[in-house]
């Protein structure tokens, strides 16, 4: 028992030494707990403030991230639209260049047609003046033609009458010529008889009364035949002159007919030329009007394309504005993330403080337990 008692005494001493050591350590821990409690009380308000700020910053961060996601989606859509707009803009620029070239070509062609139209207008005025003169000449020619037709009708009747008279005169001329020839023959025969009687009278030395009477009668017949021949010759000459005059009139009428026919053909040709030129001018006018309408349509299309291009440029400027907004939000997000990291660091530090507070609480409980055990021990 003594040995057991000594062993127990030694063990008690060890326990007392350990208790003294634990009491010193507990006192040190108590002071640390008091310090930590003070720090904890101070840290609670800071933690609450930090947690409130952290929650607010987390909300702002989530809102910013959602806004950034929306802006990124909108930016992607704008970039896609911008890509399509850029392709359409390139196509539109090429189309505008093509339309500009076509417009220039159309304008040049329109100017050329305008010059041609002006030239054709002057030609039309000249043609109209010429047509007026032609109409006046045509009216005069028609009057002359009507008068000539009347004259031609009268002339035809006159020609027929003249031809009948000419035929009758020719027949009469032939009859008179035959009669003149017959009278000439008779005159020669009478002259021969007279010469024979004269010779007989000269041979008989003294003419008888019978022979003298025959000579006188024969001389009278000769004189009468000579007078008839002269009269018939005058009639023949008059008839020949009348025939030549009528033939000249017929020739004048023929030339007048030919002149009127030529004038009529010339008037018809002028009318056809005027009609052809008016038709050509009308066709050129229609073509010029069509070109002008095509030019106006092309200009309207160009204006529409320019308006579309301006809309595309407005979208591009809007995209650039969105990019600037996204860049600003990125910088704000970077600041928020930095503040969040700082808050996280502070929260980590506060977490360490809280852990220490839990340790202090645990030590305080342990001290209270030990104190309770010490009070309960004999």
UniProtKB/TrEMBL annotation:
GO cellular component: centriole
Chief location: cytoplasm
Cell location: Cytoplasm, Cytoskeleton, Microtubule organizing center, Centrosome, Centriole
InterPro entries according to UniProt: Centriole_BasalBody_StrucProt
Keywords on record: Coiled coil, Cytoplasm, Cytoskeleton
Keyword match Cytoplasm: yes
Coiled-coil blocks: 12-263, 312-339
PANTHER family: CENTROSOMAL PROTEIN CEP135, NUCLEOPROTEIN TPR_MLP1 DOMAIN-CONTAINING PROTEIN
Protein family per UniProt: Belongs to the CEP135/TSGA10 family.
Name of the featured protein: Uncharacterized protein
Organism of provenance: Haematococcus lacustris
